[in-house]
Specification:
Layout (H helix, E strand, L loop, with lengths): L50 H15 L3 E12 L5 E6 L4 E6 L1 H4 L11 E11 L4 E11 L4 H16 L16 E6 L4 H13 L4 E6 L7 H13 L11 E6 L13 H8 L5 E5 L7 H5 L2 E2 L3 H8 L1 H34 L4 H48 L2 H44 L1 H5 L5 E4 L16 E6 L2 E6 L20
Parallel strand pairs: 3-5, 6-7, 6-8, 8-9, 9-10
Antiparallel strand pairs: 1-2, 1-4, 2-3, 4-5, 11-12, 12-13
Helix pairs in contact: 4-8, 5-6
Length: 505
């Protein structure tokens, strides 16, 4: 056990210790002499906090511990301030938490908070020192269940509908025969190409004025609003630039179509003096601009068909009437021909008819001859053109270049084959020379059990006369070498002569 040290400045003898029993020690003997050992009460060391200092330190501790948290709950007591800050309470069934969303973060929200909306808030826990109240300083907020863009879409739709911007009474009909159409869209993409192609096919006399804008991004609503104002701007006595306006864009996600779900674009469409056709996205895509426009087209291509519908119907009606008139004329001619056939024919009429037949036959004959002559002349001209084309091709530098390339490639292939043949021949020759060199090499003789004897100077010993006793020699074998010293030399004895096995006679 660690000993405890008592300071004499803190304790004074004031109370006896006779009534205290220490653990592990026998109880005091009541008949033993009493010692007057007493201790005074400890002095009080209280720290007195100013309220501001205590609250500030608590705030710092809380912010360090809960600097980034996510809290889920229901909005209650929603209060937007004139400064742009937003105050509300986030609550559930058992507790509630004050929330503050400052103006800069509130401007970035994609939906409009209101009481009863279930949200997920991210921020840091802090303490509002003036009230000593814990609160959450929010950084971001998003609705739970529905996306923020979808919720903003529904909120703006209900608000504008309540203002009457979507009423059918304020919808204006499209002009039946527009002369000029203004289309507000991106200049790049398939939308403008499809629109112009359909207009040219169905109504060749219709002029199209393209106003290029951005159809996605933060700057898109301002550009669309400016384009609509530009098309509606006219002089005091000048006619409008266009007869109808088409607001077009291709399909995309809800984030891609966010520019057409803005209140700014919806009010610009409602303020337009000219009828506006909304052709945004695919058939299943709906935007705020669709409800505010005078007419919604499922696609940009459908918008082009709707604008040219009256002209196209008139053209179809004229074509139908022309076919009916042609059939009626042919019927009348057939009836007249039948009546003429049943009429009695006089001798003069017969001669006239025969003369007409002969002239008709001669006319047919001339027609055949002219057609044959023209065909022959055409064939002659075609052969002449083919000869000229062949002559041009013969002198075409591209053909000469192609032939030169073919010759160059053939030369490269021949050179490559020649180099390979020479290389193979050189390798074979080198292999043969290497084999001969190896067979004549004195080192090859060592493999058969012989040795080379060299002097200390490195010269080959060929005779015993070159050596004297005491000389150092280097003997080289097939797998190594060793040093030796000459003790003595002796001349070589003559080789014994072999006796002939055949006796002499």
């Amino acid at each position: 056990m660690k000993p405890v040290r008592f300071s004499s400045s803190q304790y004074a003898l004031s109370k006896p210790l006779t009534n205290y029993t220490f653990k592990g020690m026998p109880p005091p003997d009541p008949f033993a002499p009493q010692l007057d050992l007493t201790f005074a009460e400890p002095r009080s060391t209280r720290r007195i906090w100013p309220v501001r200092e205590l609250v500030a330190q608590v705030r710092e501790l809380i912010e360090q511990e809960y600097g980034d948290v996510w809290v889920e709950g229901e909005i209650s007591n929603y209060r937007p301030a004139p400064s742009g800050h937003v105050y509300f309470t986030l609550k559930d069934a058992d507790a509630q938490l004050p929330i503050v969303l400052f103006r800069r973060q509130a401007m970035l929200l994609r939906f409009r908070p209101e009481d009863g909306v279930h949200v997920l808030v991210r921020g840091r826990v802090s303490v509002y020192e003036q009230r000593g109240q814990m609160q959450l300083v929010a950084e971001t907020m998003e609705p739970v269940g529905a996306g923020s863009l979808q919720l903003a879409f529904e909120q703006l739709k209900q608000r504008l509908k309540a203002e009457g911007l979507f009423d059918a009474a304020r919808k204006r009909p499209l002009p039946a025969f527009p002369r000029t159409v203004g289309i507000v869209t991106s200049p790049a993409g398939a939308v403008i190409r499809d629109f112009l192609s359909i207009v040219a096919r169905r109504h060749s006399g219709l002029s199209v004025l393209v106003v290029p804008v951005s159809v996605q991004g933060d700057q898109a609503p301002a550009e669309i609003e400016s384009a609509l104002a530009c098309l509606n701007a006219t002089g005091p006595n000048a006619p409008p630039l266009v007869d109808v306006i088409v607001l077009a864009r291709g399909g995309g996600s809800l984030e891609d179509l966010a520019a057409f779900n803005s209140e700014r674009v919806a009010r610009a469409i409602a303020a337009s003096r000219l009828p506006v056709v909304s052709a945004i996205g695919h058939e299943t895509d709906f935007t705020i601009a669709d409800f505010a426009a005078d007419l919604r087209a499922p696609t940009p291509s459908a918008a082009a068909e709707l604008i040219t519908e009256a002209q196209h119907k008139i053209a179809e009606h004229l074509a139908t009437q022309f076919n009916r008139l042609a059939r009626a004329v042919r019927f009348q001619l057939l009836q007249a021909s039948q009546r003429l056939t049943h009429l009695p024919v006089t001798r003069a009429e017969s001669r006239v008819s025969a003369l007409l037949h002969r002239h008709a036959q001669r006319l047919d004959d001339f027609s055949f001859r002219v057609e044959s002559a023209l065909t022959a002349q055409l064939r002659l001209r075609q052969r002449h053109a083919a000869d000229l084309a062949a002559a041009v091709l013969r002198h075409d530098p591209r053909q000469s270049l192609a032939q030169a390339r073919e010759r160059l490639q053939a030369g490269r292939n021949h050179l490559h084959r020649s180099l390979e043949h020479r290389l193979h021949a050189s390798v074979a020759t080198l292999t043969a020379l290497n084999a001969r060199l190896h067979s004549l090499s004195p080192l090859a003789v060592l493999d058969r059990g012989y040795a080379l004897v060299l002097t200390a100077q490195g010269s080959l010993v060929r005779s015993a006369a070159q050596l004297t006793p005491g000389d150092q020699l280097l003997t080289r074998l097939a797998d190594g070498a060793f040093l030796s010293r000459v003790e003595s030399t002796a001349p070589a004895s003559p080789a014994p002569q072999a006796k002939s096995p055949i006796p002499r006679r």
